[in-house]
Design brief:
single chain; alpha/beta; 13 helices; elongated; Rossmann fold; about 350 residues; six-stranded parallel β-sheet; six-stranded mixed β-sheet
């Protein structure tokens, strides 16, 4: 079957930019010279290009629909993010189609195909890291894409909203260094994800700045699903030279990790200081309450919705934007100066 022409095909055939074609399709979204408009309209007819339903809705001022593709709604972080994105979108008269990929690139590919069929105007997503061609296909047909929390390095022309991952991990590590710890372990996300890489980089840079040698045995990049955090904690405690502090920078594995520490009877913070990337109420209810890197979910949602709605309305410059918001470090009772060595 012959591939349907895309907005990029029209732009190339008419020798104009994609944004010019978009302005022709979405009448009233920006100025276009009469001669250029005629050329684009003729090219659209020649190629039998059919603008998306969402684009027509946009030009007519009708209600818009965006897709929200999140990694795992069993992760409290993403559940809260979904709630805030829906809230922000409703405030702008935008409907949301919610899908979850369960951290599976195959499920993600199916979700993207479904969104293409639904003719959504834009997509806010936490990508698995794969399906580069499918993401490009969405853009080729004029769907505006905003990545939140994570990004894909091969897709440079996509807006990205995230926390300052590198700085956040560095801040947590520096807090433990200031208390006197040098054997600091890190449980982070997979190295295949942008957040996993950035948080490891921040941890490493904090150690290197004060001359503490980085021990690869103390760095555990684990999947987001399952009980990999618990297993990583057990492995760290089994090291001959055990850590005296731990940063859990994988939000999906915080509960699993902390549960295992409590089950093994590790005394916090006397035997092990701990900081987690989590901001759920339970982190204040355990004994001792956990020090956390609190992610501003409301800001992540607001910026993501602002960007995708702005793109759909043709109100933003063509160049992709990266928005990094500052996370808040909250010190509680789970951190102290190094105590006696575990054993």
């Amino acid at each position: 079957m012959k591939k349907a022409p895309t907005i990029r095909d029209v732009a190339a055939a008419a020798n104009v930019s994609v944004s010019v074609v978009s302005r022709v399709i979405n009448e009233g979204s920006g100025p276009v010279a009469p001669a250029t408009r005629e050329k684009v309209v003729a090219t659209i007819a020649e190629l039998n290009f059919r603008p998306r339903a969402a684009a027509r809705e946009l030009s007519q001022g009708q209600g818009l629909t965006i897709g929200l593709v999140l990694a795992d709604l069993t992760n409290p972080f993403f559940a809260s993010l979904a709630d805030r994105v829906v809230w922000e979108a409703r405030g702008r008269g935008v409907q949301v189609v919610l899908m979850t990929t369960q951290e599976d690139s195959h499920v993600e590919a199916q979700s993207l195909a479904t969104l293409l069929d639904r003719s959504v105007g834009g997509v806010i997503a936490t990508p698995t890291g794969g399906n580069v061609d499918q993401w490009k296909r969405l853009q080729d047909v004029g769907v505006d894409v905003v990545f939140v929390d994570r990004s894909i390095s091969e897709l440079e022309n996509v807006d990205v909203v995230s926390i300052q991952n590198n700085d956040s991990a560095a801040t947590a590590t520096e807090h433990l260094l200031d208390l006197g710890h040098t054997r600091i372990a890190l449980i982070s996300g997979p190295s295949s994800t942008s957040t996993g890489r950035a948080r490891v980089d921040g941890y490493r840079s904090a150690l290197e700045r004060v001359g503490v040698q980085v021990d690869p045995d103390l760095i555990r990049g684990v999947p987001f699903r399952g009980d990999a955090g618990a297993d990583a904690a057990t492995a760290l405690l089994a090291l001959p030279d055990r850590p005296t502090a731990l940063v859990v920078a994988n939000t999906a594995q915080v509960q699993s990790t902390v549960r295992r520490l409590f089950q093994t009877g590790v005394r916090i913070p006397d035997e092990l200081s701990i900081i987690v990337f989590d901001d759920n109420p339970w982190t204040q209810l355990v004994t001792p309450p956990l020090s956390v890197v609190r992610q501003p979910i409301d800001l992540l949602a607001r910026h993501s919705v602002d960007l995708v709605v702005g793109r759909m309305g043709g109100k933003l410059p063509r160049q992709a934007r990266t928005v990094e918001v500052q996370a808040e470090f909250v010190s509680r009772g789970s951190c102290s100066a190094p105590g006696r060595v575990l054993g």
